[in-house]
Amino acid sequence: LSNASIKQGIVEDDSYRSTLVSIQPNGSKPPLFFVPGVLGNVFDLYPLAQHLDSEQPLYGLRSLGLDEGEKPLTRMEDIAAHHIQALQAVQPKGPYFLGGHSAGGKVVFEIAQQLKNQGQEVALLAIMDGLGTNIQKYQYFADWNNTKLINDISSFYQGSLGEAVNVYPETLQSIGEEEQLNYLLERLRIAGFKLSQDELKRIFQVYKANVKADVDYIPQESYPTSITFFRAMETEVFEATLGETTILEDPTWGWGDISAEPVTIYEIPGNHFTMMREPHVRFLSQILRTCLESNCNL
Fold first, then answer.
1. CATH assignment at residue 116
2. Total-model pTM
3. pLDDT by residue (tens digit) across 232-256?
4. Which of 44, 99, 107, 290 measures 20 to 30 Å from 36, CA to CA?
5. For the chain, where are the alpha helices, taking DSSP H only?
6. How many CA atoms lie within 13 A of 182 on its CB side?
7. Of the residues 213, 243, 265, the one at which a domain ends
8. What contacts 179, CB < 8 A, 6 or more positions away?
9. Domain count of the chain?
10. Is the CB of residue 266 less than 8 Å from the CB of residue 233?
C-alpha cells in the first residue's frame, strides 16, 4: 500500500475499497482505530485527534457506501470483517486499540470479537455513548416508509447541528420521496451543512444499511475481557433521538449483558453529540489517553 492510498482511504485494488481514513497518521505508539456513528463519516474524530498525544496515530473507519460506486454493507459481521481488512493493512498484528461512538459501538464490538477469534490481542475496546442492546423504536424498521426514514435521519442531524435541521412531519407527508430528500437537504443547508444531492443520497443509503445491520445484530458470544464505556452525562438529547428512556436505566446500556468482565464506566460532560466536540472532548481525550497508555488497567 502507498501512503497516498491509505490517506485517501482507498486500497489500490479493483475488488476492494478500504474504509480506512487517516486522521492523524504519525507517531510511535500503536494506532487507535475508531468507528463513527450511524451516518458513517469520520468528521467528528478530528477534534479528538487534536487532544490525543502527538505520538498517537488515529485512523477512522468510515462506512462503505459514502463514496461514489460503493454499495453499503447490511450485516454487522460483514462490516466488521471489511474494517479488519482495512486496519490490518496498517497494523497486521495486535495488540489493537479500538474505539466506537454511538452506533459505531456495536461495530467495534464485533471487530474486537473477530480479532479475538483470529488469536489477536485487543488491548482496548472503548465505546462512546453507544447502546449494547436493541431499542423498541427500530423493531419494525424494515416496514418504515420514506417519511419515517427521513424524519429519523433528520433527528441525528438535529442533535448534531441544532433546531435549524428540524423537519416537519406534515410537510414530509405532503410531498413525494424525491422532494422529501431535497427538503432535508434544504434544512441542512440552512444549518450551514453543505452537501450535494448525490452526497445526501449516499448518506441516506448508508444510514438505512447501518440501522439494518444494528437491528439484526445478535452477538454470538460474550466479550471475554473488559469493555470501557464512556457515557455522556446529559441524556435528554439522546433520549429524544431514541424515543425511549428505560434502556438508559442500566448504567452499562446493555454492555454488561455481553461482557464476561465488569464494564468500566466513565461519565463525560456534554450530551451524545457534544461529548465529541469542544470543550467536552478535552475531558474525554484526557481519560482516553490514560486508557491508551495503561491499557485501561486503572
1. 3.40.50.1820
2. 0.92
3. 999 987 887 777 777 788 999 999 9
4. 290
5. 3-8, 45-51, 76-88, 104-117, 146-161, 169-173, 177-190, 197-216, 236-242, 280-294
6. 5
7. 213
8. none
9. 2
10. no
